[in-house]
Fold each of these.
Amino acid sequence: MDGISGDIRLLGADCAEQFDIADCSNVEPGDVMVIHDYSCLQRSYKAYDRSVAGIVSDAGPYKPGIVLGTGDSGRRQVALALAGRTYCKVDADAAPVHRRATDDPLDG
């Protein structure tokens, strides 16, 4: 906290939140996570999955500045980046990665 300006400075690169993950998930920072069921997430295993929830925070030099929802649910948890910068595991060998426009159909 900067006492002169009154600014609160978070030195990490993203705002993340803890989410429960499926026991079968071998999860690492940068992994894309999808909705497994109504109570947890798992690592994505297919292209163009419509159930993407987010990216696991804390990859490379991009550490979270703040982590929300750190309560103990009794299950394994990971921090998903909600806003800011984070590394993402993506494969651009077959085709370049492009931002999809919000009005583009996903199936065509």
Amino acid sequence: MQRPRIGAAADRDLVAAFRYYLHEAGAAVARSLERAVDDALLHIEEFPGTGSRRYGHLVAHGEVRFWTLRKFPYAIFYTEHATGIEVIRVLHQASDIPVHLD
């Protein structure tokens, strides 16, 4: 399977999270976030069906699943299509997830 595609909103989410950790905690922690995202994307690529469907009913354009990052309070929301996996959002778990997915 191919590497998951990162959608525009997810890309903005990742940039914001990276900048936050870079500013608040330094480069080493920001790089650790990047590694956690890469690890999660590899897991999603290999086992796309293992993500939770908890918020799936909130998105009309496909079955949404999510997978959480290790050591960081973020979840990667994605859909699986015949052409591959698309990451639609990367959201902080304390955010109002239904509002962001709507």
